[in-house]
Amino acid sequence: MKQLLLIAIAMLAITGCGKRETRVEQGNRDQILHLGNGTEPQDLDPHIVTGVPEHHLITALLEGLVGLDPKDLRPVPGGAERWETSADGTVYTFYLRKNAKWSNGDPVTAHDFLNSFKRILTPSLASEYAYMLYVAKNAEAYNTGKLADFSEVGFKVLDDHTLQVQLNNPTPYFLSLLNHYSWYPVHLPTVEKHGPVHERGNRWTRPENFVGNGPFILDKWRENQIIIVKKSPTYWNADIVRLKEIHFYPIDSDDTEERAFRSGQLHVTQTVPLPKIDVYKREKPDLLRIYTYLGCYYYRVNVTKPPLDNKEVRRALAMAIDRENIVKHITKAGQIPAHHFTPPGTAGYTAEARIPMDVDAAKKLLAEAGYPDGKGLPTIEILYNTSEGHKVIAEAIQQMWKKNLNIDVQLVNQEWKVYLDSQKQLNYQICRAGWIGDYPDPNSFLDMWLTGGGNNQTGWSNSEYDQLIREASRAADPQKRMEIFQKAEAILLDEAPVIPIYFYTRNFLIQPSVKGWHPNILDHHPYQHVHLEAAKK
Amino acid sequence: MLRFILRRILQAIPVLIIIATLTFFMVRLAPGKPFDAEKATTPEIRARLEAHYGLDKPLLQQYFSYMGNLVKGDFGPSFKYANRSVNELIAASFPVSLELGAYAMCIALMLGLLAGVIASLKPNSPTDYVPMSMAMVGICLPTFVMGPLLILVFGLTLGWFNTSGWFFPSDRVLPALTLGGYYAAYTARLARGGMLEIMHQDFIRTARAKGASEKRVVLRHALKGGLLPVVSFIGPAIAGLVSGSFVVEMIFQIPGLGRYFVTSALNRDYAMVMGTVIFFAVLILVMNLIVDIVLVWLNPKLRFD
Predict the structure, then answer these.
(1) Which of A140, A333, A410, B193 has its Cα between 20 and 30 A from that of A80?
(2) How far apart, in whole angstroms, are the C-alpha atoms of residue A121 and residue A510?
(3) Considering only residues 508 to 537 of chain A, which have any Cβ-Cβ distance to chain B shorter than 8 Å?
């Protein structure tokens, strides 16, 4: 009762003051960035987590061997001030900077990196992203328990500040890979102090325990409410860091996030509610950003069950979708119609093969498959995880196939985990899917379709394709490598175990005061290059 | 009285065991596993992950080891939030839900009782129709409409409150109104019904015949009995309120317990599902016990049972 009265008084006090200074205005003055960050992070341990919100936090707190240029994503010096590559492209030598420090004052050494790599690869930690390190020699064997001696894995400390990495194959995207948090170092003595190093459930990531080497240090973590990071005085490049604090808000609901932005509580949002995109385009286009993103929205086809085991039927379906229409009238946020699977311009690669929109050819293919004008073809089911956005797209495709091919389609939706399970068990005919590349290279989109690959989930298998992808991983000549990928993607599209629909865009809202937030396909924004500048009134 | 309470507590134990057992097996039988993800990791890593949480053991063995820990009050580690235990997650979020629930309950009782009692004094007159129509609207307007509406008016247009968050005392106002308004509407209808029934009882007529003032009749004689339906209602209602509301917490970004009831099930975070369900069951049992004690105190007829 007393508290209620207090609230009433507080209410009056607030209303008495008139318009208050918003959080964004305060932030602009004090260099405090307020970010919407999607959802509560699982953890802040780079060797445990798997998500994107975690990525946003970890890049503020820890630093890997190389960084990315905020504009063009080119690898730039990070924890290492320079590196050398052997002539055959399989050995990288990193020279760590000698002035790099952990937030407790310890120097960052090559041993820290080595021990971190060892930690993520240790089987008992069961790190879900350990496979990101499989490009290194014997890393896979060690992680799967086939090799017990870590000294045989391709990491070697030459001296305190020199680290050598031996790869299985020349891997042109290796430096981009290093920017994934699975390659980030942790401060092992701290981890040791707060629990077993090679087991899950370690408490070293609590704010009172955390030690990092990034531009910011962890200050507060209140679950489902806020995570605050503060500028680190020990960061080697602290001079260029202009933000004093970043406040990350785990706001699950995109409507709530948009309202928080509109009322001046957030500088940058994670996303924009779909119906609001048109409104912002019309009324406040300067606050809305739409970037192309390294990802593809597509349909998986289960090739193990008739009639979709027939390549012609799959091709016909893929060719009878009007992608331009979907992008223009349904998704509406600048998405690019996808006539191939790898997003255009991924590390300079754009597939030449296409799945065209060609209704006549599609009809012909269907007739050749024994279903002239769709006759005799049983009803096909499209599965999607329950969501309004997926539903409207599925409905559009249902109509297009009915109109263009005279095929009956039924829509089925399932709750997220049930849908994932159905996909894994190949318990579907066609299902909606999305893929975001882990690193900007066609390999990230094409090696998933290898026979029996964990993310294949279509039952599709093609020995020529498998061989090409393996060949690409060994190819030293970049030009030749791209040619191999072209051939592989041509096979993939011809066989159509996947029906690409559109390439993702990232849509979000941003206050004009945020500077140094550059558009890029990975949506990486190194915070050391971001600052706030309020417009002069 | 003490024997009555003791007996109820003893009765609660098998109920809890049944609830825990059913939940344990139901959540494990649901399709989809805790570590299914859009990006599949390798089968080896996945197997080790499941082994870490004991999911590779036979189901019965998992069950008995879980129940063993439960007796010690240990809900185990959360599958989703790797560095936190279920106990910690509940301990951090329950006070928030408790606070919000307390405000909402106060609002519900103040508005609801007032409206209900006033409406019951002159049935089928404007002083009945107006509060009861408002209550009807209150029941029909779900929180996911009421919340954004309040935010639109008091947050975005008038700028009196933050649109979301749980940082300042003023951040409590809109969510408490959203949640409390809904319960106020129910309370009003129940209070009116209870009062109408009691006002026709013989002892009220006796009180009037003795010349008691109308005020005295209502406040002194009728109210205690008229509120019986409200009391039976608010027991479970309080349990529901203080354990949080998923919708209200999402709309206002409140770090309460309610969200875990939904997200833990969606994540198939078995440990968290078990934790929230058992915690809620205990709350309900405790609240019902309190309600029964209060009812006995309010209604002399029940004392002989």
Answers:
(1) A140
(2) 38
(3) none
Amino acid, res. A532: L
Task: Determine whether the interchain pair B37/A19 forms a contact, defined as Cβ–Cβ distance below 8 Å.
Answer: no
Q: Do B37 and A10 touch (CB under 8 A)?
A: no
The residue count of chain A comes to: 537
The one-letter amino acid at B74: D
H helix count then E strand count, chain A: 17, 18
pLDDT at A16: 44
Provide the percentage of residues in chain A whose pLDDT is more than 70. Answer: 96
What burial letters (b/e) apply to A142-166, b meaning 16+ CB within 10 Å?
A: bbbeebeebeebbbebeeebebbbb
HEC states along chain B?
A: CHHHHHHHHHHHHHHHHHHHHHHHHHHHHCCCCCCCCCCCCCHHHHHHHHHHCCCCCCHHHHHHHHHHHHHCCCCCECCCCCCCEHHHHHHHHHHHHHHHHHHHHHHHHHHHHHHHHHHHHCCCCHHHHHHHHHHHHHHHCCHHHHHHHHHHHHHHHCCCCCCCCCCCHHHHHHHHHHHHHHHHHHHHHHHHHHHHHHHCCHHHHHHHHCCCCHHHHHHHHHHHHHCHHHHHHHHHHHHHHHCCCHHHHHHHCCCCCHHHHHHHHHHCCHHHHHHHHHHHHHHHHHHHHHHHHHHHHHCHHHHHC
Closest CA to A498 of A320, A292, A297, A310: A297
Question: Would you state the pLDDT for residue A8?
Answer: 52
d(C-alpha B186, C-alpha A504), whole Å: 46
- Write the pLDDT tens digit of every residue in A467-513: 999 999 888 888 999 999 999 999 999 999 999 999 999 999 999 99
Note whether A145 contacts B259, CB cutoff 8 Å.
no
Nearest to B41 among A224, A259, A454 (CB): A454
In single-letter form, the type of residue at position A367 comes to: A
Peptide bond into A372 cis (omega under 30): no
Low-confidence ranges of chain A (pLDDT < 50): 1-2, 4, 12-17
- What distance in Å separates the CA atoms of residue A98 and residue A96, rounded to the nearest whole number? 6
Smallest Cβ–Cβ distance between A260 and the set B41, B77, B164 belongs to B164
3-state secondary structure of A492: helix
The label of the residue with tokens 């990232």 reads A506
Task: Give the model's pLDDT for residue B122.
Answer: 83
Nearest CA in chain A to B177: A4
Residues contacting residue A71 through CB under 8 Å, at least 6 positions apart: A518, A520
Reading the block at residue A411, the tokens are 């829509």
Q: Kindly state the DSSP code that residue A329 receives in the 8-state scheme.
A: I
Note whether B108 and B180 are within 8 A (CB).
Answer: yes
Nearest to residue A222, comparing CAs of B272, B84, B261? Answer: B84
Q: Does A255 touch chain B (CB under 8 A)?
A: yes
Chain B residues with CB under 8 Å of A222 CB are 92, 255
Q: What is the mean pLDDT of each run of 10 residues along chain B (305 residues)?
A: 84 93 94 87 89 93 95 93 93 94 92 89 85 83 90 92 93 93 89 87 86 83 84 84 88 94 92 94 89 81 63
Count the Cβ atoms, other than its own, within 10 Å of residue A521: 20
CA distances to A5, A75, B132, B238 from B109, rounded to whole Å, are 15, 62, 15, 11
Measured between beta carbons, the chain A residues lying within 8 angstroms of B157 are none
Per the CB < 8 Å rule, is B162 touching A265?
Answer: yes
How many CB atoms sit inside 10 A of residue B83's CB?
22
3-state SS, A273-285, equals CHHHHHHHHHHCH
Task: Please name the amino acid found at residue A120.
Answer: I
Cβ contacts of B145 on chain A, cutoff 8 Å: none
Phi-psi region of A76 (alpha: psi -120 to 50; beta: other; left: phi over 0): beta
